[in-house]
TrEMBL record:
It comes from the Bacteria. It holds the Pfam family Bac_luciferase. The keyword Oxidoreductase applies. The keyword Cytoplasm does not apply. Residues 12-290 form the Luciferase-like domain. Signal peptide: none annotated. It comes from Streptomonospora alba. This is 5,10-methylene tetrahydromethanopterin reductase. Keywords: Oxidoreductase. SUPFAM superfamilies: Bacterial luciferase-like (SSF51679). One of its GO terms (molecular function) is oxidoreductase activity, acting on paired donors, with incorporation or reduction of molecular oxygen.
Length: 322
């Protein structure tokens, strides 16, 4: 079991992300994970720095803690060749501490380059081609690739680590879980769904199983729920909605009727460590073993102290019930 901390890049500045990564290392977290977005989800969040610059700064300012994207869409806004290069460079700068998390993207971030937003089937095809291309480039030498959607022409990544980064593939359904087993080294999820882990394993996947655990620490429950509602109510829409809406205004409208009390059903919240442990236990029971704690509370430093004092020792020993 490894426990990570989510660097919420939509809610804080790039400088603050680097500072929080240093605090996470000092607090005993095994890794930090950061999203790769162009826009925030909501107006109240107000940030969205360039992830690859932030990762480079974190690599230089930390020594032990692992780094991961959670997750990068390697097509449309980017080309897979650029992600192959960026991930290889980050792995070198971090001395092999980097994991490349990839997924099929959201229109919120990818539409900015002016290309049409593909159907989910087409996006999964593009993700497959992207992974094949990245793997090809990480073998070294010049390569070309001709896919149904994507092309690579006479390209080489010159600076490669001795061991390529692990690739964790985001999976919200069975097809993505099978893709994670076939072309990834790990699976990545945001819900405690045992069927995802089961499908991944049945398809031959034997690597780590990453998941994000929604928490909101504050000295009292009301403050914790208010903060979760203000910063994370977008998550109540579900991935089928989150992938399709094109801008912040749409997410504001889509979440207008989400109430503070609605957040209580999906978050571990407040000052009681038992409530947080129970939220983590759901993901452990579902078969995940790389758990990223996502703090929606208003005080990151308070959460780090809470983790070090109340959660770290217990979570290091957590196991599936029974």
């Amino acid at each position: 079991m490894q426990i990570g901390y989510k660097l919420f890049a939509e809610g804080y500045s790039p400088q603050e992300m680097v500072r929080q990564a240093e605090r996470a290392e000092a607090a005993g977290f095994d890794f930090v994970e950061i999203s790769d977005h162009y826009h925030p989800w909501l107006k109240d969040q107000g940030h969205s720095g360039f992830v690859w610059s932030i990762l480079g700064a974190i690599a230089a300012r930390t020594r032990r803690i692992g780094l991961a994207t959670g997750v990068t869409c390697p097509f449309i806004r980017y080309h897979p060749a650029l992600i192959a290069q960026a991930a290889a460079t980050t792995a070198l700068l971090s001395d092999g501490r980097f994991v490349l998390g990839v997924g099929a993207g959201e229109q919120l971030n990818e539409h900015v380059v002016g290309k049409p937003w593909p159907s989910v089937t087409e996006r999964h095809e593009m993700l497959r081609e992207s992974l094949e291309m990245i793997r090809l480039l990480w073998r070294g030498g010049y390569h070309s690739y001709e896919g149904k959607h994507l092309r690579l022409v006479d390209a080489q990544v010159f600076d490669l680590p001795e061991t390529p980064p692990l690739i964790a593939v985001a999976g919200g359904g069975t097809s993505a879980a099978k893709l994670a087993a076939e072309l990834g080294d790990a699976i990545f999820a945001t819900e405690p769904l045992p069927e995802l882990v089961r499908t991944y394993r049945q398809a031959g996947g034997s690597g780590p199983r990453y998941a994000e655990v929604p928490l909101s620490w504050a000295p009292d429950e009301d403050t914790a729920l208010k903060s979760a509602h203000r910063m994370f109510r977008f998550a109540a829409t579900g991935w089928k909605v989150q992938a399709e809406l094109p801008n912040v205004t749409n997410f504001e409208a889509a979440t207008a009727h989400v109430r503070e009390e609605d957040m209580a059903s999906s978050f571990g919240y407040g000052p009681d460590p038992e409530r947080h442990i129970a939220a983590v236990q759901q993901f452990t029971d579902a078969g995940f073993d790389r758990l990223t704690l996502v703090n929606a509370g208003p005080d990151p430093d308070g959460f780090f102290d809470f983790y070090a004092k109340e959660l770290s020792r217990r979570l290091s020993r957590i196991a599936p019930a029974g």
